[in-house]
Amino acid sequence: MAKQVNKSKGLKIKILLPVAGKYFLSANVGDVVSYPKALAEELVEDKYAEFVK
Predict the structure, then answer these.
(1) Contacts of 53 (CB under 8 A, 6+ apart)
(2) Beta strands 11-15; 49-51: pairing state
(3) What residues does each domain of the chain span?
(4) Beta bridge partners of 33
(5) Residues 16, 47: contact at Cβ < 8 Å?
(6) What is the pLDDT of residues 12-53, one digit of tens each?
(7) Are 36 and 10 in contact (CB under 8 A)?
């Protein structure tokens, strides 16, 4: 199965903790996703995610 790549503009982050309950997002732990800058920075500040290159 091919890995999906999200080509939308935004910052790439790796999800470290479940985000469904607090942020109502559908990403799973371990997923690398691209979110708008404000949301990505909030997730990283709250230690729910980390930036990736």
Answers:
(1) 12
(2) antiparallel
(3) 11-51
(4) 13
(5) yes
(6) 999 999 999 999 999 999 999 999 999 999 999 999 999 998
(7) yes
